[in-house]
Amino acid sequence: MHSHTKLGSITCRKCITLIIPLKKSTILGAALSTPPLYPLSSTSFAPKDPIDTRPERPVRKICTEQLFSAKVLDASQGLRQKKLLDLLNDMRKYTRTGKAINVGHAAFRACINFLSYTFVSEDFVESVENGEYKDIVSTLLKLSGTANVVDVFPVLKLFDPQGLQRNTTNYITMFFHRLDKLIDKRLKLREEENYVTNNDMLDTLLDISHQDSQKMDREKIKHFLLGLLVAGTDTTAFGLERAMTELLHNPKVMSKAKQELEQIIGKGNPIEESDVVKLPYLQAIIKETLRLHPPAPLLLPRKAKIDVEISGYTIPKGARVLINAWAMGRNPNIWEDAHLFLPERFLGSNIDVKGRDFELTPFGSGRRICPGSPLAIRMMHVMLGSLVNSFDWKLENNIKHDDMDLDQPLRAIPVELKSCLV
Ligand code: HEM
Q: Distance, CA 342 to ligand 1 centroid (Å)?
């Protein structure tokens, strides 16, 4: 634990970083609360009621019961399956040219498409000419991740020194304009007598708004979907890119994963969300990736509501507390061979990423646990499993797996499977 930590451009006087698992009573007992996700709330698109970035109880309830429950996600899995086939077709083009793909970019694009289909049954990216929305979405994501000096020196707000407010406002306006059009189109369709629901989130949110406009209205729907898109795209894409990197770096693991997929799914076939329970080794690969490479390494910052004691240290009331999931995942006191990528450690183990096992909390834990985790887990498994089962992979410029620079973005070439060549 450190008494003073400097993180990017935000300096906290009383900031504690935890690198040991918390006890259940501490995290769930609300001794540590989570303030809003400040990079988002500092920008002008945060609504007055910060519904998008910090779902309070009613909104969180909508998330768990109506948007991310197993039943609802099962109903919308066909929408994502379509996008999975698009992703595999895109990859197939590269097998013909032999060109390397920036796997992180491909994963990012696939995640936006998966999420936009789950949200509104349409692509945010492709359906607009000139790639305009690709620009909008990626700029929003970039801006939301940019530390804003105004957070530290509020007086600078008047001058908007980095132009973040200005840029963000423009992009948000365009994004909301697109959503407004989608909502108008959907409302019109819903008036038709034979309207059959798409099972997407927009339909669910419009149903809620129809029943209780206080709870959900057009403005809230737009902010809510934007918040989910921003929170869900980069995180999931990063996890996927790191998993592929580890597989290419560890050919034995890759080969075991291929064996499992070939046996259970059949060589070359895309996997479906319902297949995941039958693929323990693939599940272990995802857990091991999230252990070593948690996409949100410090979770969301917390604040001690009262003086609280953790492992003999007193955390004073009011202190910022960062839970360092990255350091915990690499802590040799918790994990044997902590720095090695060994998915086998999770075979036959009950440790999961659902927030109950405090040594592995890539999605956080307690009342603020990531509401999108059930969807993220499905997306990561089907994308990774299908990429591994549908292609062989080699590194750009014949680089050997031992010589890979793991800190560089992964560039790899998909190769048509031998038995699938016509
Ligand atoms: C591998 C992918 C993902 C990872 C690792 C991840 C991780 C996290 C973490 C660590 C938190 C903070 C939890 C805490 O501090 O206890 C969080 C919050 C959040 N996540 Fe995720 N997330 C992922 C994907 C998604 C997806 C796909 C969505 C939605 C579609 C999503 C929506 C959110 C939202 C809205 C919050 C804010 C909750 C709040 O403020 O209380 N996430 N996520």
A: 25
> What residues contact residue 338 under an 8 Å CB cut-off, 6+ apart?
329, 330, 331, 332
Ligand 1 atom nearest 34 alpha carbon: 15
Q: Residue 11 and residue 32: Cα distance in Å, rounded?
A: 19
Mutate to test the pocket of ligand 1, among 363, 368, 383 (most ligand atoms within 8 A of CB): 363
Give the least confident one: 21-35, 240-254, 325-339.
21-35
Rg (CA), the chain: 22
| pLDDT tens digits along 169-214 | 777 787 888 889 999 999 999 999 899 888 899 999 999 999 988 8
Q: Has residue 100 got a pLDDT over 90? A: yes
Which of 137, 235, 236 is the pocket-test mutation for ligand 1 (most atoms within 8 Å of CB)? 235
**pLDDT value of position 52:** 33
The CATH code of domain 6-420 reads 1.10.630.10
**How far is 40 from 165, CA to CA, in rounded Å?**
11
